[in-house]
Amino acid sequence: MKTSEDAVSLSDVVKLYGNFVALKGISFRIPDGGKYALLGPNGAGKSTTLKLIAGLLKPDKGIVRVYGYDPANDLETKKIIGYLPEDATPYRNLSVRENLEYIAALRGIENAADRALEIMDALKLRDYERAKVAKLSRGNIQKLALALAIIHRPRLLLLDEPLNYLDIPTQEEVISMLSKIGNSMLVSTHIMAVAGRLTDNIIMISRGTLIWQGTFAKLKGMSSEGEPIEKVVARLMTDGQVV
Ligand SMILES: Nc1ncnc2c1ncn2[C@@H]1O[C@H](COP(=O)(O)OP(=O)(O)O)[C@@H](O)[C@H]1O
Ligand SMILES: [Mg+2]
Fold first, then answer.
1. What's the angle, vertex CA 44, arms to CA 149 and CA 234, rounded to 5?
2. No. of H helices and E strands in the chain?
3. How does strand 8-17 pair with strand 20-30?
4. Which of 14, 15, 20, 60 should be mutated for ligand 1, with most atoms under 8 A from CB?
5. CATH architecture of the region 3-239
6. What digits encode the pLDDT tens for the residues 87-141?
7. What is the C-alpha separation between 133 and 140, in angstroms, rounded?
8. Domain range list for the chain
9. Residues 6+ apart with CB under 8 A from 219
10. Residue 214 in contact with residue 60, Cβ under 8 Å?
11. Which residues line ligand 1 (CB under 6 A)?
């Protein structure tokens, strides 16, 4: 498959914040339809990586591509990508329904009102449709933010810690909703269990460096008998092995 057909490709991507090197030359690819987790401890560079793919940051070196486009410069990628930022904040003075209809209209979705209803049903947000965001619980704000990220049926979904703030039953709802979506996905998390529920491939980063990648099954195969998979991950991360 040509690189231009990959959902995502990063080649030797370096990102600086002032003098601080947040990403030290990262390369990976996600084929069309791939479900990948970006796993790493706090400060590893997960959010930075997602912002580069979403086109909100430009790399200082290296190349970022989304279905062959440069996300920082090609407007085409705005239609392709759905991005849930860390600590997403929908418009606080609008209701749940108004947020959805507004973003749907901005994105040029036909029948914005119908799509808003459909997505509220999928995420069990109908009970709150008239509530202003300012009055919602943090969990419901997170669900609304997720709804806003997927409202235009993006080909590539970028989710930064999507289960943050959700209680366990709501996490299950969101996992089951996301697993029915057929698009390419990159989900950042620092929690191994989340990665395993939503994706089948793992890209592990630590301190701005890619330290391991492979399938979830392969990672499981690396644990000795009775050893929890989290221990394997912790070992990979502290050894800082580069593969
Ligand atoms: N805007 C910024 N200015 C300076 N440093 C930043 C900025 N954003 C992130 N960093 C630093 O870059 C590193 C990676 O951050 P981030 O991508 O948010 O990691 P993660 O999402 O894995 O926790 C951290 O050390 C963080 O402190
Ligand atoms: Mg982060």
1. 110
2. 9, 9
3. antiparallel
4. 20
5. 3-Layer(aba) Sandwich (3.40)
6. 888 999 999 999 999 999 999 999 999 999 999 999 999 999 999 999 999 999 9
7. 9
8. 3-239
9. 202, 212, 229, 232, 233
10. no
11. 17, 20, 22, 40, 42-48
